[in-house]
Amino acid sequence: MSQARRTARPVPVALVAACAAGVLLLTSCGEGAKGSSGGDGSVKVGLITKTDTNPFFVKMKEGAERAAKKNGVELSSAAGKFDGDNEGQVTALENMVAAGVDGILITPNDSKAIVPAIQRARDKGVVVIALDTPTEPQDASDALFATDNLKAGELIGQYAKARHGDKPAKIALLNLAPGVSVGQLRRDGFLKGYGIKENDPQVVCAQDTGGDQAKGQTAMENCLQKEPGIDIVYSINEPAGMGAYTALKAKGRAGDVMVVSVDGGCAGVKAVKAGQLAATSQQYPLLMASKGVEAVVAHVKQDKKVSGYTDTGVNLVTDRPAGGVSAKDTAYGLDNCWG
């Protein structure tokens, strides 16, 4: 989703005719980029992110590049033009398979719609690993390297409940978008952590934001118009959370509404430190990508099976801890942030 959250110095490869249409960006870097593992022995890995501008995915790409350099891997990267661009990701998958990659790492823009393209790649012997966002079903990819997004949401839900206490709340949910499993998991986790169901009367507003700050602001404005007394805001990621904060500040409500979020990007942690966000659940995109590259290398060179789910960790970050909820402070968050 979730702000998360990067700069690369790639060398263009010639395999991407579809890039001329402007659908996505595909580049290559790494040592020994002379062919597939069956030729000069190098391993070829493709990375496909949701976009190439979100700091979360910039950091993910950085992690993949570091691991590629360390392991002598040829890395190709691609990204959709916008969050939700499934068609662009399908094109990227097809291009990478045609180029003879050994494995593809992907953060699906649409967890269900991408599955047929992933299956076609796997049918041709390409290992496909989902990063950050699981496919639906999860076993549509060979493996998943990701934050436990349900836990990430649960942590901020527990925190909000511990801070707010037993008095009735008026909660706004600033969600991601339909069809994206990471958004569903974070939201469901928040509700679980808070101890309520989606249809609980304490949930007074729910809006999709696409994880975008401007849309988050608009969503918050809509929610405040519907229910001016909102006192807790769940946001899918920190950009959406900061959009909510902007709307609340304009209404003179910033000081008395608790905004919680997920991601742990540097801008988000700074917002926690400044008191604009109460807490965030920090995830680690660099680790997701580096472990993904290493898994493909081990599969190709050591015939190790790539399967299952690898949890890359999550920590609640806040400078206002709540009883019974384990947390790290913003000093830790800034030491481990991205963006």
Describe the structure in your own words:
By secondary structure, this protein is α/β, with parallel strands linked by helices. The chain has 10 helices and 13 strands. The strands form 2 sheets. The chain has a 7-stranded mixed sheet with strand order 1-3-2-4-5-6-12, sandwiched between helices. It has a 6-stranded mixed sheet with strand order 8-7-9-10-11-13, with helices on both faces. Strand 4 (103-106), helix 3 (115-123) and strand 5 form a beta-alpha-beta unit. The protein starts with 23 loop residues before the first strand and ends with a helix.
Low-confidence stretches: 1-27, 29-36
Order of helices and strands: EEHEHEHEEHEHEHEHEHEHEEH
Order of strands, widest sheet? 1-3-2-4-5-6-12
Q: What's the assembly state of these chains?
A: single chain
Instruction: Please give the largest β-sheet.
Output: 7 strands, mixed
Number of helices: 10
Structure summary, number of beta strands:
13
Q: How confident is the prediction overall: mean pLDDT? A: 90
End-to-end Cα distance, whole Å, is 15 Å
Shape: elongated
List strands and helices in order, with pairings:
Layout lengths: L23 E6 L13 E7 L5 H17 L1 E8 L5 H13 L4 E4 L8 H9 L3 E5 L11 E4 L2 H16 L6 E5 L5 H14 L8 E6 L4 H14 L5 E4 L2 H13 L7 E6 L2 H8 L5 E4 L2 H18 L5 E4 L3 E3 L12 H6 L4
Parallel strand pairs: 2-3, 2-4, 4-5, 5-6, 6-12, 7-8, 7-9, 9-10, 10-11
Antiparallel strand pairs: 1-3, 11-13
Helix pairs in contact: 1-9, 4-5, 6-7
